[in-house]
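Q: Start with the shorter request: fold the first protein.
A: Done. Sequence, then structure:
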Amino acid sequence: MSKVAVVYWSGTGNTEAMAKAVEEGIREKGAEVSVFGPSEFDASKVDEFDAIAFGCPAMGAEVLEETEFDPMFTAVESSLSGKKIAIFGSYGWGDGEWMREWETRCNNAGAVFAVEPLMVNEAPDDDGIASCKALGASLV
């Protein structure tokens, strides 16, 4: 059985709703899933999972959340070489610069994307939830 981690931070609940749909998509494909906040996940856990979904909304001037999520991601980045991952998050402004920069960081680390990064404007609607489930399924 495949083991997948979902690691996310959410301020308003939009990225949390996305993470729950990602988790559902993983479960529907029959994999074991573990969900973590950024304070619960570190580089020592990366090898425990076949794939990892990371979720974080755009913050401030289109950056990853700087207090909890970005420090955790920076710490695990060097452990992602060859690891199957997906990244997702919500935004309320801007054009997705935070997601493009995050994708570049993942590519530079040697991570293997299972699916294109997923951005949802504000709260996910039915199509957004379906996209999140598909993202989760792609990791199995």
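Q: Next, the second protein, separately.
A: Sequence, then structure:
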Amino acid sequence: MWRWVKCGELKAFLTPGGKYKIRKEGLESFIQKKMKHLSDVDIFQGKKVLIVDDDPQILKMITQTLSSNGYNVEEALDGFEVGAKTMQFKPDLMIMDLYMSEMDGFEVCGRIKENPKTSHIKIIAYTGFHTKENRDRIMKAGADGYLIKPVEKSVLLQSIEALLDQ
């Protein structure tokens, strides 16, 4: 980086203390021009995960787990809130309960996967009401993963990482 600064390819400024500093905008611009294979989102913030559950305690636990592991997290309490959060937050992945008030996870998953603007979002469904029928139904609706509550933190993180690495 020092060579790029010295030859003027990477813009930097000198502080009163004699240190060179690079502004975020300058680094982002440099990456876009010189290192197109790198994503600025990956460099400047964690992957975005939207957690959808009508149980505030579960939301809090998953949010804390993911935030402490470098993920950028948003929450939605029901299926209706998912629409607005999805368009505004643009998550890379959703973790969604199957049974919620208003609109269940099956319907939400189907709508997300049917929309060309959101179909790329990975979805992990999780439930405390595990049956073969529920698993088959949500996977048919387009879910990319399925977990049973309660889920170990390590299993949750491994599942997320595996899907985001695809």
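Q: Describe the second briefly.
A: The mean pLDDT is 88. The chain has two domains: 2-42, 45-164.
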